[in-house]
Specification:
The complex is a heterodimer of chains A (522) and B (488).
Chain A: H1 2-8, E1 13-14, H2 17-33, H3 40-64, E2 73-82, E3 87-93, H4 97-114, H5 122-141, H6 145-154, H7 156-166, H8 174-203, H9 215-222, H10 227-244, H11 253-260, H12 263-273, H13 275-288, H14 290-316, H15 321-342, H16 345-376, H17 387-390, H18 392-405, H19 412-427, H20 429-454, H21 474-488, H22 491-503, H23 506-515
Antiparallel strand pairs in A: 1-2, 2-3
Helix pairs in contact in A: 2-3, 2-5, 3-4, 3-5, 4-5, 4-12, 4-16, 4-21, 5-6, 5-7, 7-8, 8-10, 8-11, 9-13, 10-13, 10-14, 11-12, 11-15, 12-16, 13-14, 13-15, 13-16, 14-15, 14-20, 15-16, 15-19, 15-20, 16-18, 16-19, 16-21, 16-22, 18-20, 19-20, 19-21
Chain B: H1 2-35, H2 44-65, E1 69-71, E2 76-78, H3 80-106, H4 113-130, H5 134-152, H6 159-190, H7 195-202, H8 208-225, H9 233-240, H10 243-268, H11 270-273, H12 276-297, H13 303-323, H14 327-358, H15 369-372, H16 374-388, H17 394-408, H18 412-438, H19 451-469, H20 472-486
Chain lengths: 522, 488
């Protein structure tokens, strides 16, 4: 009888928009499987069409989402997918996941165009890429923790195969880079799984002896969990998602992995996949285990600041372009973690905005570096120089990515960083102020890279290079538009995020936990 | 007289139909092998396949609509638990037969008996799953084991195969002796060999003799499951035996031993086996099996040895479900065993094909398989990842059930070990994937896949994927099978 009460809250809802968004790349991948492998042009067009469909649908969802109503919308829910576990096949988006969904598809679409010149084993590449995009998308639209986790691990294997086939061997071999990336993420996920099962078992008695993985039910019941238990599970969750978001000291896979990976994988990995860690920390860590979050927040803040400063410092000394961006992404993720650790509405808004902004910026950066490498066959900063003379369009994209990276006002990154510091300085004054110094390092390494790669005297050995044109320009168009439009009208995204944070009840949870008297670590 | 016989038959058929069919089929195939000269017999594989399909159809029907009965005063049990395992054995036999055709054709002599022997082993396993008496259990076990002695040494001209046969014979016989010793102790203590009576007699018994009997039973069955420290035979024998035999040995004989383990150790000897000492022992064995199996698999260069160590590790995961001591735990074991059948047989189907076409089981000879045979490479990748427990494949759901059951009983540590070791296993599974995808393998021959092996590969791939995405049907079957054990 009680089960009926619980079940009645979950009615079957079948809005097809999100499943279609998810399945478009999968369908494209299936079509490609049956195309002959010589038809490279057709394969690329099919891949572009698949991702374009997803992008169009997610833009539609972005504008059709009712911000005043808030909450989960565009629901697709089939209750009782696995009856014994209580998994529901549930998709939906709210103000926190919708920006990430949009980001995934922006990057997915551009990643296809960044790989437009690929000639080697094209068929395998695009099949894996499309599966990867669908997997990342699935994590953000999943309303059920089990489904979320399923998609999260789905993405690991295509990445491994893509790195070892299409990657590049520089400081470390691509096999090493691929394996390191994979093992780090999988070991992290093993700890996460233990936490997940423990949480599931602890929720059962609270939910009329019925297991559930639905995020909203977990969030509702999680409040009643014993704080010490929350502290334990949050530690596991933090380890799992922390290694995914490359939290210091679990970050070392990130620069090596990005350097070894082909351009499209770097774009998706740095752009969105990493953000699954931040998203998971918010969705699972803050919503379900607020007392645990409160306990670990000081530790997170310290690690985050250490990561933000340390990685920025290391980035200054890098010779390889991809390592610079790799370390810079570790550094920027530090800000996201500071924001999450600050545990207030403004900072969480900032964290999500930062994930969105950094996603766009790093994808643009990796895309441009990919083109530089493709044309000059080197990523070594010392060997490059004066590229703006021969390739002005590429230089423009590169420059805008750099400027966004150091948080230039009028780009969305500025808005995000600003929000984070406004939010964090109230709760964590010392880490926040220390974090600001990271921005100085960021400016230093970004300007150094831009000066050494784009400017300086004209080098005759690059005279034969052709500038970007045609399909190669797509990533620039897409990302630059987003960077500036959202930078100038930040409410487009921030308003949405804020509605998500408020309507989902996170605001209330944060308020309650702010007053709770569970001692922090320090 | 007529009536008594009629009653017996009336009792017999609802309970024993699959066993009778398999026995008759085995004899028929043996007869064909004897009477028809090698050149003239063509239809043995199709005959076996279609007959097994019929048996499978009946067993599935039996699972859902069959009556629950005991036979011959409790010597033989017919419940959904037994039927679940019968389905598993028949599926395994069917898949092995399907992909072994070409491989067996290449063997020098006596290839007529191969199918008959596979079926005889299947019959032994079915008897083990249904045994309600230790003697019946032992008869089934020996039927299976002795058949495997023959099968392992089937490739007579190959020294490795003969060596493996001898090793298996010696070690298997001693493990049987250990098991028999345990059985005789139990008989001495309880005065019966029947499981229900043993349960009544030993429910409150304690003392060193009972403990010894329990440990002997565990050791005897642990050998078949290749639990560490009874695992040392597995790599050599897996490597030496013809690949389809290895596949059948790794999958079905292990599942049969688990069926016996659940019935005898988990249910009948419960009070002993899960006293604090017994539980600690099981905990240690499961942890050791997972750790040793996975770590020892890392340096392997031969696919069969790799799969041998991986199957040791898989046995460790299954033991975690036994540690759950609950319906959920048994359900997890059943589910995982079935997922394991498809994943492992898919991998072995590819290994068999490579072994047959290239005459080698070295992992380096899988180079460039993604180009030479994209289907085989994809199947092997998916099957290995399912064994590693990566979603959305069946192995992930199975592992989730297993560790959930153990954690529900408070075994947090074993779940940690299990999850971390399964991520370690990704390392060596991926090293195979790496070989297949990294290089183009220019110097190696093309290996087109067609016919029955192709069907097997596609089928295992689809089932592994389906069970990972929508596990409910199999999970429900496993739950009712597990429940049929408890409501005795």
């Amino acid at each position: 009888m009680m089960n009926q009460a619980a079940a009645s809250t979950l009615q079957m809802m079948l809005n097809p928009t999100l499943p279609l968004t998810l399945l478009a790349p999968v369908f494209a991948a299936l079509v490609i499987v049956f195309l002959p492998k010589e038809e490279t042009k057709t394969i690329k067009i099919v891949a572009a069409l698949g991702t374009l469909t997803s992008l169009a649908l997610s833009i539609y969802v972005f504008f059709a989402y009712d911000r005043h109503l808030g909450g989960m919308q565009f629901n697709f829910l089939v209750p009782g997918w696995t009856q014994d576990l209580g998994v529901n096949l549930a998709f939906g988006v709210d103000g926190i996941s919708l920006p990430m969904l949009l980001l995934t598809n922006l990057i997915g679409f551009s990643a296809v165009y960044s790989s437009w010149n690929l000639e080697k084993r094209v068929k395998e590449f695009f099949v894996l890429l499309l599966v990867l995009i669908a997997g990342v998308m699935g994590t953000f639209i999943a309303r059920d923790l089990f489904i979320f986790f399923l998609f999260y691990e789905v993405v690991v294997i295509p990445i491994y195969i893509m790195v070892i086939i299409f990657g590049s061997t520089k400081r470390v071999t691509k096999e090493y880079a691929g394996m390191k990336l994979t093992i780090y993420l999988l070991i992290g996920s093993a700890f996460l799984l233990v936490g997940l099962v423990a949480l599931y078992l602890a929720i059962i008695p609270l939910n009329h002896n019925q297991g559930t993985f639905m995020f909203d039910q977990l969030a509702l019941l999680g409040q009643q969990l014993d704080p010490n238990f929350q502290v334990f599970v949050f530690a596991l969750v933090l380890f799992g998602f922390g290694s995914l978001i490359s939290m210091f000291p679990f970050h070392s896979w990130s620069p090596d992995g990005y350097a070894g990976a082909p351009t499209a994988v770097s774009m998706i990995h740095a752009g969105v996949l990493k953000k699954i860690g931040g998203y998971g920390l918010i969705r699972l860590g803050l919503f379900v285990l607020p007392a645990g979050a409160k306990f670990w927040a000081p530790a997170m803040a310290v690690l985050a600041v250490a990561g933000a400063l340390y990685a920025a410092f290391i980035a200054m000394a890098q010779k390889d372009l991809k390592y610079v961006v790799g370390y810079s992404s570790v550094s920027h993720m530090g800000y996201v973690i500071i924001a999450i650790a600050a545990l207030n509405i403004t900072s969480i808004d900032g964290a999500v905005a930062m994930m969105f902004a950094h996603g766009v910026m790093s994808a643009l950066f990796f895309s441009m570096i990919g083109f530089v490498y493709e044309k000059t066959h080197t990523r070594n900063i010392a060997d490059l120089g004066g590229l703006a003379h021969q390739m002005p369009r590429l230089a423009t994209g590169f420059l805008i990515a750099g400027m966004a990276g150091l948080g230039l006002p009028s780009t969305v990154n500025f808005v995000a960083e600003f929000t984070i510091f406004i939010g964090a300085v109230k709760a964590l004054p010392v880490p926040a102020v220390l974090g600001v110094f990271g921005i100085i390092f960021t400016a230093a390494y970004t300007l150094r890279v831009i000066a050494n790669v784009l400017f300086g005297p004209r080098r005759p050995e690059w005279d034969h290079l052709r500038d970007l044109k045609g399909p190669e320009m797509v990533p620039i168009y897409v990302f630059v538009t987003v960077l500036f439009v959202v930078g100038v009208f930040p409410n487009l995204v921030l308003g949405l995020i804020d509605s998500g944070v408020v309507s989902s009840g996170l605001a209330k949870i944060l308020e309650t936990v702010g007053q709770a008297k569970i001692g922090g670590l320090f | 007289m007529q009536d008594a016989f009629g009653t017996l038959l009336g009792q017999l058929f609802p309970v024993l139909t699959p066993e009778i069919l398999v026995a008759l089929l085995s004899l028929l195939l043996l007869g064909i092998g004897l009477l028809i000269p090698p050149g003239a017999r063509k239809g043995m594989l199709p005959l076996t396949v279609f007959a097994l399909l019929g048996v499978l159809g009946y067993t599935v029907y039996d699972f859902f609509f069959g009556v629950r009965a005991t036979f011959l005063q409790g010597m033989y049990l017919h419940d959904q638990f037994a039927t679940f395992f019968k389905i598993l054995f028949v599926v395994a036999a069917l898949l092995v037969v399907l992909f072994s055709g070409n491989y067996i054709q290449k063997l020098p002599a006596h290839r007529g008996e191969f199918y008959a022997l596979i079926l005889a082993a299947t019959l032994g396993m079915m008897l083990m799953a249904g045994a309600g008496d230790l003697i019946t259990l032992y008869v089934g076990l020996e039927l299976m084991t002795i058949t495997f002695y023959l099968l392992v040494a089937y490739w007579q001209t190959e020294a490795k195969s003969a060596e493996a046969g001898i090793k298996y014979l010696v070690l298997g016989a001693s493990s049987s002796a250990v098991l028999l010793y345990g059985i005789s102790l139990i008989y001495g203590l309880s005065g019966s060999t029947q499981l229900s009576e043993i349960w009544d007699a030993l429910a409150n018994a304690s003392g060193p003799a009972v403990l010894l009997a329990t440990v002997f039973v565990l050791a005897g069955l642990g050998f078949k499951i290749s639990l560490v420290p009874f695992h040392l035979w597995a790599p050599d024998i897996y490597e030496g035996a013809p690949t389809p035999v290895t596949a059948f040995l790794a999958v079905a004989s292990k599942a049969a031993a688990f069926a016996a383990l659940i019935r005898v150790y988990l249910i009948t000897l419960n009070s002993q086996a899960f006293a604090p000492t017994g539980e600690t022992l099981l905990f240690l064995l499961a942890a050791l099996t997972m750790i040793v199996g996975n770590l020892a698999a890392i340096p392997q260069t031969n696919i069969k040895r790799l799969l041998a160590y991986s199957s040791i590790a898989q046995a460790g995961y299954l033991m975690v479900g036994i540690l759950g001591v609950s319906v959920a735990g048994v359900k997890a074991v059943l589910f995982y065993a079935m997922a394991y059948v498809f994943a492992n047989l898919g991998a072995f189907a590819v290994a068999t094909m490579i072994g047959e076409k290239q005459g080698s089981d070295e992992i380096k000879d899988f180079a460039g398989l993604s180009r030479r045979s994209p289907l085989a490479a994809a199947v092997l990748t998916a099957c290995l990842l399912s064994l590693a427990g990566i979603p959305p494949l069946a192995g992930f759901v199975g592992k989730f059930y297993l560790f959930w059951a153990a954690m529900d009983r408070g075994h947090l540590a074993i779940a940690f070990i299990g999850f971390v070791m399964s991520m370690v296993s990704v390392y060596y599974y991926l090293s195979v994937v790496k070989v297949m995808y990294l290089t183009e393998g220019e110097e190696l021959p093309e290996v087109p896949v067609k016919g029955a092996p192709k069907f097997t590969m596609v089928f295992t791939l689809l089932v592994t994927l389906f069970l990972g995405l929508y596990p409910t049907p199999l999970a429900q079957m496993a739950i009712s099978a597990a429940n049929s054990l408890v409501g005795r």
